[in-house]
Amino acid sequence: MISRSLLCLRITPSILRSFSTSQTHQNFKSGISLDKLYSSPLQSTDVKPTIPSNETAFGGYIPLDEVDISYMRSSGPGGQHVNKVNTKVDVRFLLKDAKWLPESMKENIMKKHSHMVTPSGYIIVRSDKTRTQQLNLADALDKLRAQLYSTVERPPVRPDHYTIEVHRRRAEKATRERLREKRIKSDVRQFRGAQ
Amino acid sequence: MSSSHGTVKALQMLRRLPRIKLNNLISIPGSTKKSQRGRGIHGGKDHGWGTKGPKHHNRHVPAGYEGGEMTPYFLRYPVQKWAKERYDISYVPLTLQSLQLMVDTGRLDVSVPIDVTQLYNTGLLRIDSRLEHGGVMLEEKGMDCFCTPMNLEVQYASEAAIAAVEKAGGTITTAYYDPYSLTAALKPVEFFKKGQVIPRRFLPPQRHIEYYSDPRNRGYLADPALIEEQRLLLSQKYGYVLPDLEKSLMKELLFQRKDPRQVFYGLEPGWIVNLADKVILKPTDPQLKEYYSS
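Structure tokens for the assembled complex are given below, as produced in the milestone run.
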């Protein structure tokens, strides 16, 4: 499953791809061919999904050619396989040179989340969670995205009237019960001793 | 007592009593009889527990128990992650590693669209619809070394496998073949020699339609628009630059797709292929034509 941080990737795809069959193969279209199932018209101009820009706010998109990805050997047990195969992934980039992040976000990171940044100014994320290089890369990018999202300040969620009322009633009921139990115990204690 | 006293009382009760619900219904007292252990004469001797056996000796026997020698019927077969029923379709596994090996050793020609026919004809896969095989499933083992762009059509693919194929610059589709269509697709020459009509491929059963309509699985019934969106999302998840298929040299090959009713590329359902005379016979009756093109 695609992680939550990735689902926040705000894309606005204007998407029309024509699945044009080539001239040599016949264009057999049955009653349930794709153009009858879906209303997306098959036009000659194909428009790809637009890649979001992170100018105002971080949308979750990480351009992979602007980030340094390197592979190395993982640690831990595994014999010959772990000694030979580069499954560990290191993803890093220089924060101040990152044009794909909004300036406000960079300033925020340096001010409030400076622990994420190394003394030389890099943000580094590593992963050797799985046995495969590709899955480790996916894990590293997921971590990076989550890390960047955690720096975005969101307004505190204030509960609505209904929730407040529900909580108030629960507290009241708890108090009532507590006092009832207390009274019962008190009665029991009172009837002890000499009659 | 006045005649209305009971009525008044009843109406007062009605005002205060709760609504009839399932949790406050009871039978008329005396109408049901609780079953008890029979004590003596005709309820006696074994008291309803038969002779010997675990039940008589007060040992709990779980439902479906077959005496301990045999695994219970409902536990004998594994349940796959796509299975909606216990005895659902099974798929023959194909790893990316073996697929790459087939290409490298020249057993698979990548200049044509690769579907279940091509994969079976390498001779390296054993697919039989009589064994409830629905086709081929693509597994992600070897995803690190997979680098061949190809137009691939399988019956099930894991997310990581889809990512690996798209990263290499290819396209992947998951498509359903019903057992008869699958038999035809696996051995086309044998099928044509029988002189049978090319079947109209069935839609997937109700429980699997969702899988094949989902763009995340690159289903053949999914909206092509949403598939594009998912391609970009997957490239972001697995960390690769999405190859631009428009600029690819294999553009025409990569965009070839079968119609949902088609079994063979280039052949329509309803046709009969005569290999001996090298002719294709097409239906002329309007009813047949309508059926095969619906």
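DSSP finds six helices and five strands in chain A. Chain A touches chain B through 47 residues (CB under 8 Å). Further analysis is deferred to the final report.
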